[in-house]
Amino acid sequence: MDFQRFKAGPDDAGRRTDRILRRLFPDTPLSALYSLIRRGLIRVNGKGVTPGFLLRGGDVISAPAFLGGPEQKPGGGGPGDFPFVMETLFCSRDLRIIAKPAGLCVHAGPGVPSVAGWLTSLETPESLAFVPAPLHRLDKGTTGALVCSRSIRGAVWFSQALRERRIRKRYLAIAQGSPAGEETWDEGLERESGSIPERAVTVMRPLGKGAFLGLGVFLAEFTIGTGRKHQIRKHSALHGFPLLGDSRYGGAGTGGQGYFLHGAEIAFPGDNPLGAPPSVSAPLPEAFRAMLETCGLGGLLG
């Protein structure tokens, strides 16, 4: 009988063998995996184990080849085949921060390009139990800094820091209207029609006013204390300042260019254990800069 082998990495230490096997062979019933373990056809370091055996980094699991390999993730193929340019802004053992371009989904189904698919084709994690993944959301049309995990340690810490509101995210956008000054919006937003509203906190600060085809617009800086779906887009529209080009929420058309919303900066607490810098900034896309020039706002940013 032919066997395949999988080496446990640092992130697998202390994890049960059966749980690792479920990730490696998701299409195989758990009862069948247990049967193979009992019969000695699945072994660790050449020895029979129980389903609850706790792995250590460096342990080698051997399993029959007929089980097939680990599940192929969407968006496969090498990074060189990816139809979007992805710039890495910061990378450590635990986190990768990228500049997401417009038109790219963070998550998507099989055959659809996504950040998640790109990560699985780019990364070779030192783990059997862990898959690199985006740790927060940017809408398909939104650009900017996106934090992705490279280890379980990074994923757990960043997700907890987000829940505790210790991560600050700053955005830039071109919005319609003429606000008098800074505004703080603190109110519930529905995730979908009829759902229970979730509290959302957005601070909007106007940076300068311009015009687009006779329509008053302004460059806005947004700082969010929560991360609700479409939060900035919904809040802006709700308060009379829809994003230019955001037709879904009442924005005027931009000739097919869509809206302009950019994740400009992500700031980390100084005591973070991952070695992340105080902040990571994403350069403004050329299309955004060109629209600023069109609106007479080009001199506001360096």
Short précis:
With 302 residues, the protein is α+β, with helices and mostly antiparallel strands.
Helix and strand topology:
Blueprint: E1 3-7, H1 17-24, H2 30-38, E2 43-44, E3 47-48, E4 60-64, E5 87-91, E6 95-100, H3 115-122, E7 143-149, H4 152-163, E8 168-176, E9 183-189, E10 198-212, E11 215-224, H5 231-238, E12 261-267, E13 279-281, H6 286-294
Parallel strand pairs: 7-12
Antiparallel strand pairs: 1-4, 2-3, 2-4, 5-6, 6-7, 8-11, 8-12, 9-10, 10-11, 12-13
Structure description:
The structure is a single chain. By secondary structure, this protein is α+β, with helices and mostly antiparallel strands. It folds into two domains: 3-67, Structural Genomics Hypothetical 15.5 Kd Protein In mrcA-pckA Intergenic Region, Chain A (Roll); 79-300, Pseudouridine synthase, CATH 3.30.2350. It has six helices and 13 strands. It has helices at 17-24, 30-38, 115-122, 152-163, 231-238, 286-294; strands spanning 3-7, 43-44, 47-48, 60-64, 87-91, 95-100, 143-149, 168-176, 183-189, 198-212, 215-224, 261-267, 279-281. The strands form two sheets. Strands 5, 6, 7, 8, 9, 10, 11, 12 and 13 form a nine-stranded mixed beta sheet that branches. It has a four-stranded antiparallel beta sheet with strand order 1-4-2-3, with no helix packed on it. The longest helix has 12 residues, at 152-163. The protein is elongated, with a radius of gyration of 23 Å.
